Amino acid sequence: MILGKKRVFIATILFSAIVSSNLASAHTMVVIPDLDQTKSSIIFQIISHGSPQTSEINAKTTDGKQRICASLKDPRCSEAEELKVSLIVPTCTAKSTNFDVCIRGVDVRGRDAKIYPSVHEREVATTKFSKNVDAKIGNAGGVSIWKVKAGVTSDSSDKIATKVVLTYSVEIDKVSKKANPAKLVDFAISAYPVSYISGNYEMRSYLVNEDGFEYYGIDPSYTNLDDSSKCEWTEKGICVMKGYFAPDTNILISLQMDNKLQGWLASNILDLKIEEKKLTSSTNLLTVGGRASNPSPVYAVNNVIDVSKLKELEAAYNRCGGEVSVCGQTFEQFDNKIWEGLLTSDVSSAQFKVGLADVISLSLVDVPDQGTKWNIASMPEAGWRKGVSWSPCVSNSKVLAGVVSTNASLYQMNPPELVDQKLVSRVAGAHHNSKNELNRVDYQVAMRGDVFRCLLKKNTNPTSVKATAFSSAGEVMENPAVQMVEQNGWVNFAAKNFSYSTPNVEFVFSTPVVKTVSKTISCAKGKKIVKVKAVAPKCPKGYKKV
For 334-375, what is each residue's pLDDT tens digit? Predict the structure, then answer.
């Protein structure tokens, strides 16, 4: 429909605020209340993915079938060219050594700011497999449950579930049939309160469908089971319900980690603290802590769009085949189209930098009551944006280089880019929340000191930082409060509590100039006296200071 110089679009676009893993084996549709889909010409729906609840080894064999291996030595999978290993990190035990990959502990700082110890209660009895020396992969475990004082982390639970998932790619040697050393391709940590509901429930088990496809699921032979659609997972007799941390709950997790973990991480943990120390030739001690945040998924409803945006909107909706169709589309946090490539795939074109966030940012609306999150995940460069090449400072790092963390609904997950000697990144979200209050966001980067100085191309020790939030047009929107600290080899800097819809966030670092003070000394040689003035004055040869 054309109305004068404007064209009517009634559309809804949904995005996820959750850092998603490519490990997804389960998914949950974000439900928008009171959304009349029949009045929307196009609906972009987002699925927020979860990571597997079971350690498992998947293989696609030469006969084209999907198989689940009992171990890396399973003869049924020996013909597979490549195996995908999803390993849930177990809890350390009294028998664990520093060479084992395992969770050491979980500490909690409650709403009253007191530190409460947690006690390891149990590890979920899911499918597991033993370590493999050839592949250099450790023992697989299950989700670990930790008990804390009731009411510390939430009003309804005294238990915290902690899940650390490592995903490996393993190639099998065609001659020896042994596994080659594994490549770590993904990493994710999540923590959340859980509670139990008793009922007629069963645990997932190994199954084969009619086509010979192998998978983990609930055995269909079980009858009269209770509805488990709202369960995070089920065990025999119980439904495990996922809860949400109370505001300002601070979680600290320490674990012995495979030193194959390198590159860059992304997170929604606020006031993030991260530290990594070498333990052995194959493991590091990784400590991650901070506050749970509440990053809302967002959707956009554009009722009337100026003709100046028509080209961009048509590009956004071109997969739907018509302006009156209801079209479901999925946009994850790391999707290229959010930030670039909407109009063209030509990286050299100026139009390449236009993304969905540039088109619909002013129409973004929060999805209310989605609860708090405490997640951190890897961001492999291969899975990131086509138009952005990471700095060699990060790409060539043989260790964990850094992490970006924010409660923004949408954000660039890659390392901040160096532009005119400034580190720059972007965030996007609704300008107001569901209560019509101004949304405010924190944006933090933690990176190793050597990576930080490499990015700035300066071997200096900046002691101050200025942050600016400005629009895509270059207009300064706000100068957020900033924090900067360097400790234990890591540099942390953050822009705090600024309002946003689609600002660029830039950081400018400075090192105070130390004013040099000259001194004057008197020097004597016989009866001759001379004065020497310098920052560090010294008497000439043959003279003595007097």
Answer: 677 788 888 888 888 888 888 888 877 777 777 777 778 899
Claim to verify: residue 93 and residue 215 sit in the same structural domain:
yes
Residue at 362: amino acid letter: L
Here the contacts of 111-115 (C-beta below 8 Å, separation 24 or greater) are 111/152, 111/246, 111/247, 111/248, 111/249
User: Closest by alpha carbon to 505, among 393, 436, 428?
Assistant: 428
DSSP calls for 334-402: T-GGGTS-SS-S-TTSGGGG--HHHHHGGGEEE------B-EEEE--GGGS-TT-PPPHHHHT-SSEEE
How far from the centroid of its chain's Cα atoms is residue 322's Cα?
35
Structural domain range at position 75? 53-261
* Number of domains the chain is built from: 4
Judge whether 287 lies within some domain. no
Classify 138 in phi/psi space as left (phi over 0), alpha (psi -120 to 50) or beta.
beta
Q: What confidence tens digit (pLDDT) does each residue in 406-427 have?
A: 988 888 888 888 887 788 888 8
DSSP helix/strand/coil, 327: coil
Is 384:391 a contact under the CB 8 Å cutoff? no
DSSP state at residue 502: S
Q: Are residues 130 and 37 in the same domain?
A: no
Q: With H, G, I as helix, E, B as strand and everything else as coil, classify residue 241.
A: strand
Is 159 part of a structural domain of the chain?
yes
- Report the C-alpha gap between 184 and 182 in whole angstroms: 6
Q: What is the pTM of this model?
A: 0.82
> For residue 449, what is the enclosing H or E element?
helix 449-456
- Say if 329 falls within a structural domain: yes
> Which residue type occupies 404?
V
